[in-house]
Design a protein that fits this description.
Distance between the termini: 35 Å
Helix content: over 70%
Number of strands: 0
Largest sheet: none
Number of helices: 5
Shape: globular
Length: 91
C-alpha cells in the first residue's frame, strides 16, 4: 500500500466535505471521485454516493438537510473526517 496515495485520498475526501459546505456541488463530486480513485483500503466506498446525494440536494434545493450530512458522517466513520462533517454541517 502506498501511504502517500492514501493520504491524498483522505485529503480529497476532506475537500469534498468542504466543497459541500461552501455550496459547490460539482467540486464536491469531483473530490469525492478522486478520494474513491486513490483509496487503496476501501474506506471511502459509500462516501461518493453520500456526497452525490447531498450534491444533488444542494443543486435542487440550495441546501443540504441533516439526513444527507448524517449519511456522509456515517460513510466516513469515526475520526477526524466525521468531526469535519459535523463542523461543516453546523456552520
Amino acid at each position: 500500500m502506498d501511504g502517500e496515495k492514501q493520504r491524498r485520498a483522505l485529503s480529497a475526501a476532506e475537500q469534498a466535505i468542504r466543497a459541500l459546505g461552501s455550496g459547490n456541488a460539482e467540486r464536491a463530486r469531483r473530490a469525492a471521485a478522486t478520494a474513491i480513485e486513490l483509496d487503496q483500503i476501501a474506506v471511502f466506498g459509500p462516501f461518493a454516493s453520500a456526497v452525490g446525494g447531498a450534491a444533488d440536494e444542494l443543486e435542487v434545493g440550495g441546501a443540504i438537510d441533516g439526513a444527507h450530512w448524517d449519511a456522509i458522517a456515517e460513510a466516513v466513520g469515526p475520526g477526524p473526517l466525521q468531526e469535519l462533517v459535523r463542523n461543516v454541517a453546523g456552520a
